[in-house]
Amino acid sequence: MSKYISVGKILNFHGIQGEAKVGYSKNQQDFFCSLKEVFVLSEHEYVPLKIKSCRLNKSFAIVKFEGINSINDILPYKNSLLFVQEETIRESLDEDEFLIDELVGLEVFDTNDRKIGFIIGVSNNGATDLLSVKTKSKKVSLVPFVKAIVTHVSIKDKKVVINNLEGLVEE
Q1: pLDDT grade for 89, boundaries at 50, 70 and 90
Q2: Does the pLDDT at position 74 exceed 70?
Q3: In this predicted structure, what is the pLDDT of residue 167?
Q4: What distance lies between CA 76 and its chain's CA centroid?
Q5: What's the mean pLDDT in 12-25?
Q6: Which CB contacts under 8 angstroms, 24+ apart, belong to 144-152?
Q7: What pLDDT does residue 141 have?
Q8: Which one, of 30, 39, 67, lies nearest residue 52 by Cα?
């Protein structure tokens, strides 16, 4: 069974030809507009919607779906989340990119192979992604997800190695 990941949301209709205003994840406009098909969840089933066209407008995309040609056709989809199959996202990831759910739960070690804690979440401050690391003393520290600090990630070994600069992670 395929796993689906949300990539956007139909915010509203746009014009009278059945186009949709679609919100998408920050900095993912190129990926979103490269999609040929998305899915909506309807009555516990993922229903495909083929994308006919996609154009960007400020902070959202204007999307035309095949077979949706009027306001009445698009209105039932208003506020629906749009999904893609996990494999679609994996194909577009670079070698040093990961899905958030792959990182959460990984153990964090320093460069001396001493366990510091584990990742409880991932966020973004606008400049970079941040790993929320919970230490053995239950403190949470934000670690910038940059190569100079996060030196190694192994999903297979469930391990992340960081260069624990002084004051970065309070144990």
Answers
A1: confident
A2: yes
A3: 65
A4: 25
A5: 92
A6: 147/96, 151/111
A7: 85
A8: 67
CA 43 vs. chain centroid, Å, equals 24
Structure tokens given for 148: 């100079």
Q: What local confidence, expressed as pLDDT, does residue 90 receive?
A: 80
CB 138 within 8 A of CB 132: no
The domains located in the chain, with CATH, are: 4-92 (2.40.30.60), 100-162 (2.30.30.240)
Is residue 36 a contact partner of residue 63, using CB atoms and an 8 Å limit? no
Cα–Cα–Cα angle for 97, 7, 84, rounded to 5 degrees: 90
Beta strands in 91-139 (DSSP E): 107-110, 115-124, 129-135
> Is a pLDDT exceeding 90 seen at residue 14?
yes
As a whole number of angstroms, the distance between CA 99 and CA 109 comes to 20
What amino acid occupies position 92? Answer: S
Residue positions counted in the chain: 171
95 CB-near residues (< 8 Å, 6+ apart) = none
Structure tokens at 131: 């790993």
Residue 167 neighbours by CB under 8 Å, 6+ apart: none
